[in-house]
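Study this chain:
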Amino acid sequence: MTTGNGFDRGAIAGLSRRGRPWRLLGDELAAAPATVRRRGRWASGARNRPSQPSLALLGAPRLRIAGAWYDLPPSRWVALLAYVVHARTWVRREALAATFWPEHDQVRASWNLRQCLQTIARSRAGPAFEREPTRVCWRGTSDLGDFEAHLQAASWQSAVAAYRGPFLDGLEAVDVGPFQDWLGVERRDLEERWRAGVLALAEERLRADRGGAALDLAHTLLRHDPLDEVAVGLALRAAAASGDRTRGARTYRAFCEALRDELGAEPAPTIEKLWRDLTSLPT
């Protein structure tokens, strides 16, 4: 249920673990925010320190705490939390109000924001969510940090494994214009970085004489975009390296068919050459 001011109260009870609702208040984890100091530092005493919440934002959003995973509902408070987590620094309250309640004046938008921040603070994510009078931030971890660290370290296999799916999959249901504009840009950027990681990993596999594994990675890209010419070229090279003419032929023919159906075009000369190289291999 959404109130007249745009605050989604129905999301409060929507958090679930394996489809079962769970309460935001009244259990030992809901009481955890009391053990967190201002400025996001844990209270002294390691044995009293709660497990640090971690958010998975690649794919459908999920929360991990104390070793358990919880699904997060496609609601405005989850979208706002993800927005703050993505920033990895302090985010000013007025920026959040303008992004998530653009249809309201400053007073009403600020009131809605306070209600939303209270919902986050009372949730299982609350222990890692820090609020100050003018700004908020996330002190927990997220899979975005892991994904980018793997990319920077050129750990392509780990980076590819960390990418569970489109950024904030399902949160396109949160129909707020500025948020949706931001989500589209960030989702495309992360998707392109994942694609670059898959290509780099496939090249590693080819250099290691693992053509079959490289071919599998090429097919991963083609399932995402059947018209990805770079992935087709990779698939044909991998098929040649592994001697798998059958899979290479299926890949080439599917690409040609998609290209003609979608664009009325024929394969580029580079693709044709790779196809000829594959078919010239001894049987």
